[in-house]
Amino acid sequence: MIKSMTGFGRSKLVKNYREYQVEIRAVNHKYSDITIKMPRNLSYLEDCIRTIILNKIKRGKIDVFITFENYSKDGKKIQINKEIAKNYIQTLKELAQEEKIQSNIEVTDIAKLPDVLTVKSIEDEESIKAEVSIAVEEALEKLIAMRKAEGEKISKDLLKRMQSIDTKIKEISEFSTGLINQYVVKLEERVKELLKTEEIDKTRIAQEVVIYADKCSIEEEITRLNSHISQFTNLIKTEEAIGKKMDFIIQEMNRETNTIGAKSNSLEITNRVIDIKTQLEDIREQIQNIE
Questions:
Q1: Residue 182 included in any domain
Q2: Does a structural domain hold residue 246?
Q3: Residue 245 resides in a domain
Q4: Rounded CA separation 34/24 (Å)
Q5: 171-193 pLDDT, tens per residue?
Q6: Are residues 143 and 249 in the same domain?
Q7: What is the pTM of this model?
Q8: Domain that holds residue 249
Q9: Same domain, 65 and 100
Q10: Do 198 and 107 belong to one domain?
């Protein structure tokens, strides 16, 4: 079943006192364009995330948003800069002596001074990679489910429009069958009118009919249109990315329809050509949202 390029998926994972939130948004795009926004300390995972997405989505503008909080005590380490702390203590003692004030320096006072204490993150990169992958996969599955649901609606509309086109093509074929006989009758009447005689050269008439039939024949165009309809219908049933293939088929169908319109001397056929072109344009707009 075909898939739309529009969708949204969100997931949340809490594991080992680490919390991840992933949002993935997808919209129409001619090619595959993935943008990932996440904390700097997870930047080493960008290629991994991109690969996960490309394995399941072939086309579209994909925006990925990831937030990460590490509440694990193993993920933080407090470090003390003893040299800076000693410098603070020495300087404060000297100040106390110079100003002849009592020096009563507490450890907690020193700890509050700039750059004495720092909190350093110690990340388990392999575990975090596995956990981020799980969160991304879950958000991606929800996104794909939405794309499939939208794709199912589109496929029903496309099949309905193709059935309408198929009906119009059959009607054109029926009208075209009678055009030669109509031309023969009109040609004979015209010749008789011009020559003012009931005697006409049947051989000459036959030659003119052959030339007309060859010039106005649309059998090849009808055959190719029927083939394109069959190909298009079969594509709808496949699971692969088919948007570009469908776009090409619609272009070809439009070209064949234009040729029929150019050859036609029948108002009935011209009207049906207009109907087909209208349907093809609507289909072309629809498949711009197909992966």
A1: yes
A2: yes
A3: yes
A4: 10
A5: 988 887 755 555 454 545 554 55
A6: no
A7: 0.67
A8: 152-287
A9: no
A10: no
Verify that 94 and 206 share a domain, yes or no: no
Give yes or no for residue 1 having a pLDDT over 90.
no
CATH number, residue 253: 1.20.140
Instruction: Decide: helix, strand or coil at residue 36.
Output: strand
Residues with Cβ within 8 Å of 65's Cβ and at least 6 positions away in sequence, in order, are 22, 23, 24, 25, 37, 38
Mean pLDDT to the nearest integer, 84-107 = 79
Q: Indicate the SS3 state at residue 79.
A: strand
Residues 157 and 100 in one domain: no
- Kindly give, in sequence order, each residue whose CB lies less than 8 Å from that of residue 11, ignoring residues fewer than 6 positions away: 20, 21, 22, 135, 136, 138, 139, 142
Q: What share of the chain is helix, strand, coil (3-state, %, to 5)?
A: 65, 15, 20
The residue-averaged pLDDT of 2-11 equals 92
For residue 187, tell me if it sits in a domain. Answer: yes
Q: Residue 117 has which token pair?
A: 């204490």
SS3 of 65, please? strand
pLDDT digits (tens, 9 = 90+) for 61-78: 999 999 998 877 665 667
CATH code at 54?
3.30.230.10
Strand ranges in 183-229 using DSSP code E only, listed in sequence order:
none
Q: How far apart are CA 202 and CA 3, in angstroms?
A: 60
Per-residue pLDDT of 119-161, as tens digits, reads 666 567 888 999 999 999 999 999 999 999 998 999 999 999 9
Supply the pLDDT for residue 51: 95
Exposure letters 160-177 (e unless 16+ CB within 10 A, then b)? ebbeebbebbeebbebbe
Domain count, the chain: 3
